[in-house]
Amino acid sequence: ALVDKGEHRHFMAKEIHEQPEVLGHAISAYVDPVGRKVVLPEGGIDFSKVTALTMSACGTAFYATLVAKYWFETYARLPVETDIASELRYRDVPYREGGAALFISQSGETADTLAALRDAKEAGQQVGAIVNVPESTIAREADALYPTHAGPEIGVASTKAFTCQLATLASLAIAAGVARGVLSREDEERLTGVLLEAPRHVAEMLHADKSLEAIAAEVATARDVLYLGRGGSYPLALEGALKLKEISYIHAEGYAAGELKHGPIALIDEAVPVVVLAPRDAVFDKTISNMHEVMARGGKCLLVSSAEGLAEAARGGKVWGEIAVPEVDPLIAPIVYSVPVQLLAYHAAVAKGTDVDQPRNLAKSVTVE
Ligand code: G6P
Q1: Which reaction equations make up its catalytic activity (predicted)?
Q2: Looking at residue 18, what DSSP letter applies?
Q3: Does ipTM top 0.90?
Q4: Which residues line ligand 1 (CB under 6 A)?
Protein backbone atom coordinates (compact mmCIF):
# COMPACT_ATOMS: atom_id res chain seq x y z
CA ALA A 1 0.00 0.00 0.00
CA LEU A 2 1.12 3.54 -0.72
CA VAL A 3 -0.14 4.78 2.60
CA ASP A 4 0.56 3.02 5.89
CA LYS A 5 -0.42 3.61 9.47
CA GLY A 6 3.08 4.48 10.61
CA GLU A 7 3.29 4.35 14.39
CA HIS A 8 -0.50 4.48 14.77
CA ARG A 9 -2.89 1.65 15.55
CA HIS A 10 -5.47 2.82 13.04
CA PHE A 11 -5.59 5.01 9.96
CA MET A 12 -8.12 7.16 11.77
CA ALA A 13 -5.60 7.96 14.52
CA LYS A 14 -2.92 8.70 11.98
CA GLU A 15 -5.25 10.97 10.03
CA ILE A 16 -6.37 12.81 13.16
CA HIS A 17 -2.72 13.46 14.04
CA GLU A 18 -1.84 14.59 10.52
CA GLN A 19 -4.19 17.54 10.81
CA PRO A 20 -1.72 20.26 11.81
CA GLU A 21 0.36 19.41 8.75
CA VAL A 22 -2.42 19.03 6.17
CA LEU A 23 -4.32 22.05 7.50
CA GLY A 24 -1.12 23.96 6.85
CA HIS A 25 -1.22 22.74 3.25
CA ALA A 26 -4.88 23.63 2.82
CA ILE A 27 -4.48 27.10 4.28
CA SER A 28 -1.31 27.93 2.39
CA ALA A 29 -3.09 27.01 -0.84
CA TYR A 30 -5.47 29.94 -0.29
CA VAL A 31 -3.77 32.36 2.08
CA ASP A 32 -0.61 34.33 1.44
CA PRO A 33 1.05 34.31 4.89
CA VAL A 34 3.30 37.28 4.15
CA GLY A 35 0.74 39.54 2.50
CA ARG A 36 -1.95 38.30 4.94
CA LYS A 37 -4.48 38.01 2.16
CA VAL A 38 -6.58 35.37 0.47
CA VAL A 39 -5.43 34.32 -2.98
CA LEU A 40 -7.89 32.18 -4.92
CA PRO A 41 -7.11 30.27 -8.13
CA GLU A 42 -7.59 32.17 -11.41
CA GLY A 43 -10.87 31.65 -13.22
CA GLY A 44 -12.74 30.69 -10.07
CA ILE A 45 -16.06 32.01 -8.80
CA ASP A 46 -16.31 35.79 -8.94
CA PHE A 47 -17.85 36.44 -5.52
CA SER A 48 -18.23 40.16 -6.21
CA LYS A 49 -21.06 39.26 -8.59
CA VAL A 50 -22.64 36.33 -6.77
CA THR A 51 -26.22 37.00 -5.64
CA ALA A 52 -26.74 33.93 -3.46
CA LEU A 53 -24.89 30.81 -2.46
CA THR A 54 -26.11 27.22 -2.29
CA MET A 55 -23.99 24.52 -0.68
CA SER A 56 -24.57 20.83 -0.69
CA ALA A 57 -22.88 17.57 0.26
CA CYS A 58 -23.43 14.26 2.07
CA GLY A 59 -22.37 13.01 5.48
CA THR A 60 -19.54 14.79 7.22
CA ALA A 61 -19.00 17.08 4.22
CA PHE A 62 -22.58 18.29 4.67
CA TYR A 63 -21.72 19.44 8.18
CA ALA A 64 -18.87 21.45 6.67
CA THR A 65 -21.50 23.32 4.62
CA LEU A 66 -23.44 24.12 7.81
CA VAL A 67 -20.36 25.62 9.44
CA ALA A 68 -19.55 27.54 6.26
CA LYS A 69 -23.05 28.98 6.17
CA TYR A 70 -22.26 30.96 9.34
CA TRP A 71 -18.99 32.14 7.82
CA PHE A 72 -20.46 33.29 4.49
CA GLU A 73 -23.28 35.08 6.30
CA THR A 74 -21.05 36.77 8.86
CA TYR A 75 -18.00 37.64 6.81
CA ALA A 76 -19.50 38.06 3.32
CA ARG A 77 -23.15 38.95 4.10
CA LEU A 78 -24.15 36.47 1.41
CA PRO A 79 -27.52 34.70 1.57
CA VAL A 80 -26.79 31.00 1.92
CA GLU A 81 -28.84 27.89 1.63
CA THR A 82 -27.54 24.42 2.38
CA ASP A 83 -29.07 21.02 1.96
CA ILE A 84 -28.12 17.38 1.91
CA ALA A 85 -27.39 16.38 -1.69
CA SER A 86 -29.90 13.52 -1.73
CA GLU A 87 -32.60 16.08 -0.86
CA LEU A 88 -31.39 18.95 -3.01
CA ARG A 89 -31.32 16.84 -6.16
CA TYR A 90 -35.01 16.03 -5.89
CA ARG A 91 -36.21 19.45 -4.85
CA ASP A 92 -37.58 21.87 -7.36
CA VAL A 93 -35.12 24.59 -6.36
CA PRO A 94 -35.83 28.08 -7.68
CA TYR A 95 -32.14 28.86 -8.15
CA ARG A 96 -31.47 32.57 -8.18
CA GLU A 97 -30.03 34.24 -11.23
CA GLY A 98 -26.37 35.02 -10.68
CA GLY A 99 -26.10 32.44 -7.93
CA ALA A 100 -23.19 30.16 -7.17
CA ALA A 101 -23.27 26.64 -5.78
CA LEU A 102 -20.51 24.83 -3.90
CA PHE A 103 -20.36 21.05 -3.63
CA ILE A 104 -18.16 19.53 -0.98
CA SER A 105 -16.83 16.00 -1.19
CA GLN A 106 -13.79 14.14 0.06
CA SER A 107 -13.89 11.52 -2.69
CA GLY A 108 -15.42 13.67 -5.42
CA GLU A 109 -17.44 10.62 -6.45
CA THR A 110 -20.51 10.64 -4.20
CA ALA A 111 -23.47 9.94 -6.50
CA ASP A 112 -25.99 12.28 -4.85
CA THR A 113 -23.52 15.16 -4.65
CA LEU A 114 -22.62 14.74 -8.32
CA ALA A 115 -26.29 14.68 -9.33
CA ALA A 116 -27.01 17.82 -7.32
CA LEU A 117 -24.02 19.52 -8.94
CA ARG A 118 -25.28 18.68 -12.42
CA ASP A 119 -28.73 20.09 -11.59
CA ALA A 120 -27.29 23.35 -10.29
CA LYS A 121 -25.10 23.69 -13.34
CA GLU A 122 -28.04 23.10 -15.62
CA ALA A 123 -29.96 25.76 -13.69
CA GLY A 124 -27.25 28.26 -14.63
CA GLN A 125 -25.41 28.40 -11.33
CA GLN A 126 -21.66 28.93 -11.24
CA VAL A 127 -20.51 25.67 -9.74
CA GLY A 128 -17.51 25.19 -7.48
CA ALA A 129 -16.13 21.90 -6.14
CA ILE A 130 -14.34 21.55 -2.82
CA VAL A 131 -12.84 18.11 -3.11
CA ASN A 132 -9.94 16.14 -1.75
CA VAL A 133 -9.38 14.06 -4.90
CA PRO A 134 -8.64 16.54 -7.69
CA GLU A 135 -8.94 13.93 -10.46
CA SER A 136 -12.48 13.00 -9.38
CA THR A 137 -15.70 13.37 -11.36
CA ILE A 138 -17.05 16.19 -9.19
CA ALA A 139 -13.75 18.05 -9.58
CA ARG A 140 -13.84 17.64 -13.37
CA GLU A 141 -17.46 18.70 -13.83
CA ALA A 142 -17.30 21.85 -11.73
CA ASP A 143 -16.56 25.29 -13.21
CA ALA A 144 -14.12 26.03 -10.41
CA LEU A 145 -12.01 23.64 -8.36
CA TYR A 146 -10.85 24.22 -4.79
CA PRO A 147 -8.78 21.23 -3.64
CA THR A 148 -8.64 20.58 0.10
CA HIS A 149 -5.07 19.16 0.16
CA ALA A 150 -5.74 16.70 3.00
CA GLY A 151 -3.89 13.87 1.24
CA PRO A 152 -5.33 10.33 0.95
CA GLU A 153 -7.89 9.53 3.65
CA ILE A 154 -8.25 5.80 4.34
CA GLY A 155 -10.36 5.65 7.51
CA VAL A 156 -14.04 5.46 6.57
CA ALA A 157 -14.92 8.10 9.16
CA SER A 158 -13.74 11.40 7.74
CA THR A 159 -11.42 13.47 9.96
CA LYS A 160 -8.62 15.40 8.27
CA ALA A 161 -10.68 15.78 5.09
CA PHE A 162 -13.36 17.54 7.17
CA THR A 163 -11.05 20.05 8.84
CA CYS A 164 -9.36 20.76 5.50
CA GLN A 165 -12.81 21.34 3.97
CA LEU A 166 -13.44 23.81 6.77
CA ALA A 167 -10.12 25.58 6.19
CA THR A 168 -10.85 25.85 2.47
CA LEU A 169 -14.37 27.13 3.07
CA ALA A 170 -13.14 29.67 5.64
CA SER A 171 -10.68 30.98 3.04
CA LEU A 172 -13.45 31.23 0.46
CA ALA A 173 -15.74 33.05 2.89
CA ILE A 174 -13.02 35.61 3.67
CA ALA A 175 -12.32 36.01 -0.06
CA ALA A 176 -16.03 36.52 -0.67
CA GLY A 177 -16.17 39.12 2.09
CA VAL A 178 -13.28 41.03 0.53
CA ALA A 179 -14.71 40.76 -3.00
CA ARG A 180 -18.10 42.00 -1.81
CA GLY A 181 -16.60 44.93 0.06
CA VAL A 182 -17.83 43.65 3.41
CA LEU A 183 -14.35 43.08 4.86
CA SER A 184 -11.80 45.86 4.97
CA ARG A 185 -8.12 45.31 4.33
CA GLU A 186 -7.61 45.27 8.14
CA ASP A 187 -10.33 42.66 8.55
CA GLU A 188 -8.69 40.49 5.90
CA GLU A 189 -5.32 40.77 7.63
CA ARG A 190 -6.79 39.88 11.00
CA LEU A 191 -8.90 36.96 9.77
CA THR A 192 -6.18 35.41 7.61
CA GLY A 193 -3.84 35.80 10.59
CA VAL A 194 -6.33 33.89 12.75
CA LEU A 195 -6.74 31.18 10.12
CA LEU A 196 -2.97 30.75 9.81
CA GLU A 197 -2.89 30.02 13.55
CA ALA A 198 -5.33 27.08 13.26
CA PRO A 199 -2.70 24.34 12.70
CA ARG A 200 -0.80 25.42 15.82
CA HIS A 201 -3.94 25.28 17.98
CA VAL A 202 -4.90 21.91 16.52
CA ALA A 203 -1.41 20.61 17.35
CA GLU A 204 -1.80 21.89 20.89
CA MET A 205 -5.18 20.16 21.21
CA LEU A 206 -3.64 16.90 19.98
CA HIS A 207 -1.26 16.92 22.94
CA ALA A 208 -4.31 16.13 25.07
CA ASP A 209 -4.98 12.95 23.04
CA LYS A 210 -4.01 10.45 25.79
CA SER A 211 -5.83 12.36 28.51
CA LEU A 212 -9.14 11.85 26.69
CA GLU A 213 -8.96 8.05 26.86
CA ALA A 214 -10.45 7.70 30.35
CA ILE A 215 -13.49 9.90 29.72
CA ALA A 216 -14.02 8.29 26.30
CA ALA A 217 -14.01 4.87 27.97
CA GLU A 218 -16.82 6.09 30.23
CA VAL A 219 -18.76 7.49 27.29
CA ALA A 220 -18.29 4.09 25.62
CA THR A 221 -20.45 2.44 28.32
CA ALA A 222 -23.46 4.62 27.48
CA ARG A 223 -26.33 3.51 25.29
CA ASP A 224 -27.20 7.01 24.14
CA VAL A 225 -25.16 10.18 23.98
CA LEU A 226 -26.36 13.71 23.29
CA TYR A 227 -24.20 16.45 21.74
CA LEU A 228 -25.17 20.10 22.12
CA GLY A 229 -23.82 23.25 20.50
CA ARG A 230 -24.93 26.65 19.23
CA GLY A 231 -23.85 28.72 16.25
CA GLY A 232 -20.76 27.26 14.59
CA SER A 233 -20.71 24.56 17.26
CA TYR A 234 -24.15 23.25 16.32
CA PRO A 235 -22.86 21.54 13.16
CA LEU A 236 -20.02 20.18 15.27
CA ALA A 237 -22.55 18.66 17.65
CA LEU A 238 -24.06 16.92 14.61
CA GLU A 239 -20.61 15.82 13.47
CA GLY A 240 -19.69 14.58 16.95
CA ALA A 241 -22.81 12.46 17.11
CA LEU A 242 -22.27 11.11 13.60
CA LYS A 243 -18.64 10.20 14.33
CA LEU A 244 -19.55 8.41 17.55
CA LYS A 245 -22.37 6.38 16.04
CA GLU A 246 -20.37 5.52 12.91
CA ILE A 247 -17.44 3.93 14.66
CA SER A 248 -18.64 2.95 18.15
CA TYR A 249 -22.25 2.04 17.26
CA ILE A 250 -23.49 4.04 20.23
CA HIS A 251 -26.71 5.88 19.52
CA ALA A 252 -25.94 9.58 19.50
CA GLU A 253 -27.79 12.73 18.54
CA GLY A 254 -26.58 16.22 17.87
CA TYR A 255 -28.87 19.08 18.81
CA ALA A 256 -28.85 22.84 18.70
CA ALA A 257 -28.53 23.72 22.40
CA GLY A 258 -31.54 26.04 22.19
CA GLU A 259 -33.74 23.19 20.95
CA LEU A 260 -33.05 21.17 24.09
CA LYS A 261 -36.34 22.07 25.72
CA HIS A 262 -38.27 21.14 22.59
CA GLY A 263 -37.59 17.45 22.94
CA PRO A 264 -34.25 15.99 23.96
CA ILE A 265 -34.54 17.23 27.54
CA ALA A 266 -37.03 14.39 28.01
CA LEU A 267 -34.16 11.93 27.54
CA ILE A 268 -32.00 13.39 30.28
CA ASP A 269 -31.10 11.10 33.14
CA GLU A 270 -27.85 9.98 34.78
CA ALA A 271 -27.28 7.34 32.09
CA VAL A 272 -27.11 9.73 29.13
CA PRO A 273 -23.83 11.66 28.80
CA VAL A 274 -24.36 15.10 27.28
CA VAL A 275 -21.37 16.50 25.43
CA VAL A 276 -21.55 20.30 25.42
CA LEU A 277 -19.41 22.10 22.83
CA ALA A 278 -18.94 25.65 24.07
CA PRO A 279 -16.16 27.85 22.74
CA ARG A 280 -16.19 31.29 24.35
CA ASP A 281 -18.04 33.07 21.58
CA ALA A 282 -21.11 35.33 21.42
CA VAL A 283 -23.42 32.46 22.43
CA PHE A 284 -21.25 30.91 25.16
CA ASP A 285 -23.49 32.07 28.04
CA LYS A 286 -26.58 30.72 26.32
CA THR A 287 -25.00 27.32 25.80
CA ILE A 288 -23.81 27.17 29.39
CA SER A 289 -27.26 28.02 30.69
CA ASN A 290 -28.63 25.14 28.59
CA MET A 291 -26.01 22.92 30.18
CA HIS A 292 -27.14 23.97 33.64
CA GLU A 293 -30.70 23.03 32.68
CA VAL A 294 -29.42 19.55 31.91
CA MET A 295 -27.50 19.39 35.19
CA ALA A 296 -30.56 20.54 37.15
CA ARG A 297 -32.32 17.43 35.83
CA GLY A 298 -29.60 15.07 36.98
CA GLY A 299 -27.89 14.87 33.59
CA LYS A 300 -24.15 14.32 33.38
CA CYS A 301 -22.40 16.86 31.22
CA LEU A 302 -19.05 16.64 29.51
CA LEU A 303 -18.09 20.23 28.84
CA VAL A 304 -15.70 21.01 25.98
CA SER A 305 -14.40 24.56 26.29
CA SER A 306 -11.29 26.63 26.89
CA ALA A 307 -9.72 26.77 30.38
CA GLU A 308 -11.40 30.17 30.79
CA GLY A 309 -14.75 28.78 29.67
CA LEU A 310 -14.48 25.77 31.98
CA ALA A 311 -13.70 28.03 34.93
CA GLU A 312 -16.60 30.35 34.16
CA ALA A 313 -19.04 27.46 33.78
CA ALA A 314 -17.83 25.80 37.00
CA ARG A 315 -19.33 28.69 38.97
CA GLY A 316 -22.73 27.22 38.16
CA GLY A 317 -21.85 23.77 39.51
CA LYS A 318 -19.47 20.89 38.96
CA VAL A 319 -19.71 19.11 35.63
CA TRP A 320 -19.26 15.37 35.14
CA GLY A 321 -16.31 15.76 32.78
CA GLU A 322 -14.20 18.43 31.15
CA ILE A 323 -12.13 18.66 28.01
CA ALA A 324 -9.93 21.75 27.73
CA VAL A 325 -9.47 23.26 24.28
CA PRO A 326 -7.19 26.18 23.40
CA GLU A 327 -8.96 29.54 23.56
CA VAL A 328 -9.32 30.64 19.93
CA ASP A 329 -11.06 33.21 17.77
CA PRO A 330 -14.62 32.15 16.84
CA LEU A 331 -13.56 31.94 13.16
CA ILE A 332 -11.44 28.86 13.77
CA ALA A 333 -13.31 27.37 16.73
CA PRO A 334 -15.10 24.83 14.47
CA ILE A 335 -11.72 23.63 13.15
CA VAL A 336 -10.11 23.34 16.59
CA TYR A 337 -13.20 21.82 18.28
CA SER A 338 -13.32 19.13 15.58
CA VAL A 339 -10.32 17.52 17.25
CA PRO A 340 -11.82 16.68 20.69
CA VAL A 341 -14.95 15.48 18.92
CA GLN A 342 -12.88 13.12 16.75
CA LEU A 343 -10.72 11.91 19.64
CA LEU A 344 -13.73 11.20 21.81
CA ALA A 345 -15.32 9.04 19.12
CA TYR A 346 -12.02 7.36 18.32
CA HIS A 347 -11.17 6.41 21.90
CA ALA A 348 -14.75 5.32 22.62
CA ALA A 349 -14.59 3.00 19.61
CA VAL A 350 -11.20 1.64 20.66
CA ALA A 351 -12.59 1.04 24.16
CA LYS A 352 -15.47 -0.91 22.63
CA GLY A 353 -13.14 -2.85 20.35
CA THR A 354 -14.95 -2.06 17.12
CA ASP A 355 -13.34 -2.02 13.68
CA VAL A 356 -12.46 1.67 13.73
CA ASP A 357 -11.22 2.07 10.16
CA GLN A 358 -13.85 -0.18 8.56
CA PRO A 359 -17.11 0.19 10.50
CA ARG A 360 -19.83 -2.27 9.62
CA ASN A 361 -22.19 -1.41 6.76
CA LEU A 362 -20.38 1.81 5.86
CA ALA A 363 -18.44 2.66 2.72
CA LYS A 364 -15.76 5.29 2.28
CA SER A 365 -17.38 6.56 -0.86
CA VAL A 366 -21.01 6.06 -1.87
CA THR A 367 -21.03 6.02 -5.66
CA VAL A 368 -24.51 4.59 -6.08
CA GLU A 369 -27.71 6.28 -5.08
C1 G6P B 1 -19.68 8.30 3.25
C2 G6P B 1 -18.45 8.34 4.15
C3 G6P B 1 -18.44 9.65 4.95
C4 G6P B 1 -18.51 10.83 4.01
C5 G6P B 1 -19.69 10.75 3.04
C6 G6P B 1 -19.56 11.76 1.92
O7 G6P B 1 -20.83 8.23 4.03
O8 G6P B 1 -18.47 7.24 5.04
O9 G6P B 1 -17.25 9.73 5.73
O10 G6P B 1 -18.61 12.01 4.76
O11 G6P B 1 -19.74 9.47 2.41
O12 G6P B 1 -18.46 11.40 1.12
P13 G6P B 1 -17.67 12.42 0.25
O14 G6P B 1 -16.57 11.62 -0.40
O15 G6P B 1 -18.63 12.97 -0.77
O16 G6P B 1 -17.14 13.48 1.13
Answers
A1: D-fructose 6-phosphate + L-glutamine = D-glucosamine 6-phosphate + L-glutamate
A2: T
A3: yes
A4: 58-61, 105-107, 110, 113, 156-158, 362, 364-366
